[in-house]
Amino acid sequence: MLKKQLIMDTALELFAKQGIASTSVQQITESCGISKGAFYLSFKSKEELVLELIDNAMKQLVSDLDYQVKHTQVNEDSLYMFYESVFSSFKKHSDQGKIFMNDHHLSVSPELINKIQYYDKLINSTILLLIEKVYGNSIDHLKYDLLYCIKGFLKTYSELFVFTKIPLDVSLLSKSLAEKTNLLAMHETIPFITEELSYLIDSPVESPVDIDTITTLLSSHAEAADGDYIKESLNLLKEQASNQTMSAAIINGLIENIRHIPNGKWLAYLLRQYFQLES
């Protein structure tokens, strides 16, 4: 395991047991079996480590949502599958959610606010795509309001996994929210977030996927990759980023090869944005 990843995994375990404020850098390094100097080669401070952990969690959420929406055929279960995917992830990672939602010593830095706003815009784009795929243009007049409602469902019901110890039925919750969403889409007559207010949601997102960013990420992942199969996929994608000669189907196949490497979901998400792939 890479040293930086070891630090992050160990810190998460310690934060879950004793909270962020009560966990020192020394405790993290002792648990990792490394020196403080080795820690500070990876992170300038504990605050930077916490910021990267939040950043990683948001990347996971965004890439999972995007993949779910773009790789699922539209049918009567599309909304159910969307909610089921989201809340299965919340259930799986509820301990991490408890760390960050319950710890009131987190530093709310401008950098953290900017990151959250950035990922929020990406989530908005994905949910709007879901709405358009499920309902077409039949509800264009209320799609922004429906987006706000879906985000409200996600936030409110995710708190159940963080703040309660009751076993929760993800399937039942997903069916209930899919039904609620359909009822709103079919019967809402007074949307609040109209097209005139869409700038609150549908504002442009500065793209992180220029060629320099992509080639740097692909190179660093290729250096750390285990197995010739993964390395070859990463190197082929790097070549393709500079000289686009492959078909979309081949590029998609190469991207699928790397989704399950460490941080591979986010890299796959960025690659699909860069190559402008719909699925």
TrEMBL record:
Domain of life: Bacteria
Domain HTH tetR-type residue range list: 1-61
Keyword line: DNA-binding, Repressor
InterPro entries linked to this entry: Homeodomain-like_sf, HTH-type_Tx_Regulator, HTH_TetR
The organism's taxonomic lineage, starting at the top: Bacteria, Bacillati, Bacillota, Bacilli, Bacillales
PROSITE patterns, alphabetized: HTH_TETR_2 (PS50977)
GO molecular function: DNA binding
Record protein name field: TetR/AcrR family transcriptional regulator
Positions of the DNA-binding region: 24-43
